[in-house]
Amino acid sequence: MATDKWSADDYTTHASFVPALATEVVQMLAPKPGDKILDIGAGDGILSLAIADKCAHVHATDGSANMVAYANSRVAAGKVTNVTTEVVDAAVDIKRKISAGVYNKVFSNAAYHWILGSVTSEQQRAQAFKDVYDILPSGGEFVVECGGHGNVGEILVALVAVVKTTWAKRGAKKTTADIKSKLWPWHFATNDEIERWLVGAGFEVEVLERHYRPTTLNGGYGGMRGWIETFGFSFWDGMSAEERESAIDEAVELLIGSDWLEREQKWVAGYVRCRFKAVKK
Ligand code: BEZ
To answer: The whole model's pTM is what?
Structure first.
């Protein structure tokens, strides 16, 4: 089994803006007292708990056992009775682990770019959406926000550049295609892809939007390093600890040009959000 590289501590320190910026997608979900909601990629569970205040039940799932354990500790600490948790890899596990007809809404914030990036083919990505369709009852809703095409493009370019130079120092050549297929964990889908997979699954698409949302990272100058350590862990596979540290330093240095605001002493990353609501008729 692959090592779980997610750290709940890093996530709460460097990614607390993720649930905080989810107002629009939660409004689109519009949780109601009778709703039973499956939350896919629930991370630290903060949003699941907030949604659970307004509905009957939230099943908070994530592919990372570390994050699920953390979400579970929040549920226990808050003595919350209408949130359950489970480790579910949404690219492959939905039909194996989630019974059909139990949840009338499937919700996800900031996770589908990981789920779609964990598989490689068009067919697998289309299937991930079809699996959600299959477990929803008729009238069920699929409400998602995730990174869209072009998301954090400048960070990606910097990470690819430093991976190439680090391996080149060892005399090894890594092409962008090598990095994309083996180390790059995300798929930032276009709206055309999303529409194709939703309609192909049988959904009716009610809303499908893409927005540029410049996003201030947590912390001051250390914020970009924190973001890269929290989310970019797969780029360093095969490197020594020293190589990784100096590659991250170099990426941060490159990103000063695009994302560092000297006067405000903060990092603003180029987030692009894709948001959609699809209904099973
Ligand atoms: C995002 O929410 O867009 C995102 C988060 C971490 C890594 C990449 C993208």
So the answer is: 0.96
